[in-house]
Amino acid sequence: MNFLRAAVREPLLHFVLIGALLFAVTALRQKQSEHAEIRITAGEVAQLAAFWETQAQRKPTAEELQGAIEERIDEEVLAREAVRLGLDRDDVIVRRRLAQKMAFVSDDLAVVAEPSEAELREYFDAHRETYTTPDLYALRHVYFNPERHTTLDADAQRALQRLTRGANADEVGDPFMLPRELADVSRDDIVRDFGSSFADAVTGSTPGTWNGPVRSSFGVHLVKLESHTPASVARFEDVRDIVRDAFLVQKQREANVALRTRLRQQYKIIVETGS
Amino acid sequence: MRTTMLAGTVAAVLFATGVAAEGNPDRNAYFGDLHVHTKLSFDAYIFNVRATPDDAYRYAKGESVHHAAGYDVRLTDAPLDFLTVTDHSEYLGIVPAMNDPKHPLSKIPYAPDLFSTDPAKITNAFQQLGASLRSGKYLPELKDFDTMRSAWRTIIESADRNYVPGKFTTFRGYEYTSAPDGQNLHRNVIFAGTRAPDLPFTALESQNPEELWRWMDQQRKQGIEVLAIPHNSNGSDGRMFQRTQFDGRPMDRAYAELRSRNEPLTEITQVKGTSETHPSLSPNDEWSSFEIMDTYIGSATKVTKFAGGYVRDALKTGLEFDRAQGFNPYHFGFVGASDTHNAAGSFEENRYFGKVGILDGKPEQRGSAPPAGKTWDNYEPAASVARYQTWGSAGLTGVWAEQNTRESIFAALRRKETFATSGTRMRVRFFAGYELPDGLENRHDMVSQSYAHGVPMGSDLLQRGTRAPRFLAWALRDPHSGWLQRVQIVKGWVEDGKAQERVFDVACSDGLTPDKTTHRCGDNGATVDLRTCAVSENKGAVELRTLWSDPTFDPKQRAFYYVRVLENPSCRWSTWDAIRAGVEPNPKLAKTIQERAWSSPIWYVPQR
Questions:
Q1: Separation between Cα atoms, residue B137 and residue A69, nearest integer Å
Q2: A92 contact B CB<8A
Q3: I need a surface site. Which of A199, A248, B37, B178 has the fewest CB within 10 A?
Q4: What number of C-beta contacts closer than 8 Å exist between A and B?
Q5: From B101, B140, B427, residue closest to A177, measured CB to CB
Q6: What's the pLDDT at A275?
Q7: What pLDDT does A21 receive?
Q8: How far is B428 from chain A (nearest CA, A)?
Q9: Which residues of B touch A195 (CB under 8 A)?
Q10: What is the reported pLDDT for A241?
Q11: Residue B423 and residue B395 in contact, taking contact as beta carbons nearer than 8 Å
Q12: Residues whose CB falls within 8 Å of the CB of residue A170, separated by 6 or more in sequence, listed in order
């Protein structure tokens, strides 16, 4: 009893048994594979030679090259037999590599047809926001650095009166490193440099008059909206090529997902929960 | 006939000086990154990065892209104004091809190892490529020019497709990856326009940068304008800015001109450390230990020679050459960059996501949080983690240009009207002149007056009698970053044949003034709460500006001056990571940094 229990645990015995089993299976299958071909192409031989050269820093002799070819054949034979015996299963590395290869191949399987004009127009209509130029603004402003004014609000109010009476804006307020006139800027552009409260004040004001004071990330400003161009959607004809590119990318993605879904349907998939 | 010739001359002058027909004559600051890798770089692909050049441009324009570590990243504060994809030209596009089962390169015996999940196999296969780059010799089985040409076309077409004149500028470019014996001599090569060669000149053609420059000269003769920007001089072990030519022969005028013609700029900061100066080179500069990387690139080998590896030291070397021999090999301006291998630069400390794909995409991989089950007391990081934890977040390039176009921005790079930042978007202006008027710093036309009566950053100021020049230094904070603490001017000069250096504080925040003898601002008391990273309110300035004269000016002494601006202290990325992970910050790392900007220098040139 004890002897049997020990034998069951003995790795050497396992090894011998498994070896015998493999031998039996291999012998059994030998007959079926008699005509399978292993071909090492001229291109592969050249690559083996080049690889050898990289390693040894000189060209291989005929014997050395033959050695490399023999190794390559051994590798092929062993690999094929391993697959026959199912040794590739339960191996994470092999599985990932195969999945990667299949993903590459499936990109080709899912060929996307050239879209019709109607399809492109439909896509364009469904994604109009992508092809829209946002509201654009032109504005002027003058700046007050809070660190340089003890009576900031009063100074700004006085400047506002001067500007309203027609004073030259270039000579009002403090020097400022960013441009004092901005043309063709979107709300996002304004937020990026001046912050959102400044952008809100500017985009909401009536064109042509000086307003403020308005706060920004830098201090206090007086602003004048010069003009506002409402958002506009591009003409389909002008963006057709961009629409086509986007359409094809989307269809390719959909086709890839569809292929994976179709493949999944060929399997009954069970995910066990709990442990 | 005469009229035509005159018109031709005017046009030529306008072209040569880069004066644009439109745009802001006072020039705007534009921010960008001239150093970005995508999956077409052999190393990025191995780091599991699959983002393309188009993805890199989409990210720069404000869209989100996928990070190899499994999450999406996006520029949250603001998009960039310009970007160049600079993939490694050596084996360009080859590694992706090795992973494509339809491609003959996938048949190479070690190809599967590169993409296995076994780190030892990846490392071994990767070493094949690394060894090839260190030796400068092609692996014959990977010498597939068709594949490289096709990848180069992808880069070119992506750059051209993503260029939006007036809004977003791209350049065609690549990285020349020379590292003889592992000593880093990498350069980014940037083309001005829509013409570029059939294939890049790579370090596998020659590891000697002089050969690269001669090739660039050839390109220029064919009308292809191009410049190169060295980076990570800190990882060159003193070789990037050595005192001899590549092969050890003494420098001469022809060498200095060849170099300056092709390399008007150098990268002063990026993720793999800041190369401004080293504490051992600048013992009297209290801010010299900023984001120092003291190893070779991609290796634990320690740097032993700091002289020749840092840009302030190189500028001083240049002055000594100029004085002794009448030529200056190191007459360059500054840019900053990311060198991201994720197609996406990580510029913001509070959202740092690393540089090398799956290798440092998570806090425990970059030493900012201990791995599960460990504390800082019982944790010894792997060599790679120990390197990644010393890396800083990405830097940026600022340029002063009339408008956001290839012509205007390339001209700014060419004339060195550039500044570098540690990732913040503070703006810095710097002018020098003899006629800068009193009170200039308070005038509305400060900039146009400065252009009219002085020279901007990146220029030479020639001696005029014994008069001392004036310097206008002006900095404006980044509204998405901290407040400004001080503006400094770093001076280098030659005295008795030997170059010296000194740092002057010239403008201080919070009503402080620089001390007359120490030239230092008093402490403005700005602090950081390390539990939350909150910074003190009401400390620091929105902008700082001053008109400065050098109290130590000697008209006979050759000198350079550049501006360095410091923000108040703020949390380093590793501290932000630790707070999010709910752990103490790594005790081996700086908890706070002072974000900063560096202007390109202005050189004072005495008469001989």
A1: 25
A2: yes
A3: A248
A4: 76
A5: B427
A6: 52
A7: 64
A8: 9
A9: 479
A10: 87
A11: yes
A12: A180, B444, B445
Q: Specify the amino acid at residue A201.
A: A
The two tokens of residue B89 are 């030209």
Note whether A210 and A142 are within 8 A (CB).
no
ipTM over 0.85: no
Is B140 touching A (CB cutoff 8 A)? yes
Task: Looking at chain A, list the stretches that DSSP marks H as alpha helix, in order from N- to C-terminal side.
Answer: 2-9, 11-30, 42-56, 62-84, 92-109, 117-126, 152-164, 187-194, 196-203, 236-265
pTM for this prediction? 0.82
The pLDDT value recorded for residue B452 is 95
Q: How far is A91 from chain B (nearest CA, A)?
A: 11
Across the interface, do A217 and B479 touch by the CB < 8 Å criterion?
yes
Q: Which residues of B touch A93 (CB under 8 A)?
A: 116-118
In this complex, the residue of B100, B102, B479 whose CB is nearest that of residue A195 is B479
Tell me which residue has tokens 């049997």.
A4
CB distance A218–B446 less than 8 Å?
no
Whether residue A54 and residue B479 make contact (CB cut-off 8 A), yes or no, is no
Q: Does A179 touch chain B (CB under 8 A)?
A: yes
CATH code for A135-230? 3.10.50.40
Q: What is the pLDDT of residue B241?
A: 98
Mutation site for A-interface testing, chosen from B103, B124, B543 by largest number of A Cβ within 10 Å: B543
Instruction: Identify the closest residue of chain A to B112 by CA–CA distance.
Output: A97
* Single-letter amino acid code for the residue at B331: H
CA distances from B146 to B52, B92, B128, B153 (A): 19, 10, 21, 11
pLDDT digits (tens, 9 = 90+) for B170-203: 999 999 999 999 999 999 999 999 899 999 999 9
Among A48, A147, A171, the residue with its CB nearest the CB of B444 is: A171
Question: Read out DSSP for B427-474?
Answer: EEEEEEES-PPTTGGG-TTHHHHHHHHSEETT-EEE--TTPPPEEEEE
pLDDT given for residue B5 in this prediction: 38
Per-residue confidence (pLDDT) for residue B10, from 0 to 100: 36
What pLDDT is attached to residue A28? 59
Q: Which residue has the tokens 């499994």?
A: B70
Average confidence score pLDDT of chain A: 84
Residues of chain A found within 8 Å of residue B77, distances taken between Cβ atoms: 192
Q: What is the mean pLDDT of residues A204-229?
A: 93
B400 phi-psi bin (left φ>0, alpha ψ -120 to 50, beta other): beta
Asked if A47 and B141 come within 8 Å (Cβ–Cβ), the reply is yes
Predicted pLDDT at B415:
98
How far does CA A205 lie from the centroid of its chain? 40
A33 touches chain B (CB under 8 A): no
Residues in chain B predicted with pLDDT less than 70, given as ranges, are 1-21, 117, 119
Whose CA is closest to B313, among B241, B257, B262, B249?
Answer: B241
- Cis amide bond preceding A213, omega within 30: yes
Asked whether residue A35 carries a pLDDT value surpassing 90, the answer given is: no
3-state secondary structure of B505: strand
Interchain CB distance below 8 Å, B474 and A177: yes
Q: Is the Cβ pair A53, B545 closer than 8 Å? A: no
Distances (CA, A) of A162 to A154, A165, A222, B146, B263: 12, 5, 11, 68, 51
Which residues from chain B sit within 8 angstroms of residue A241, using beta carbons? none
pLDDT score for A274? 62
For residues A41 and B110, give the distance between their C-alpha atoms in angstroms, rounded to a whole number: 18
Q: Which residues pair with B250 in a beta bridge?
A: B244
The answer to whether A178 contacts B476, with C-beta atoms less than 8 Å apart, is yes
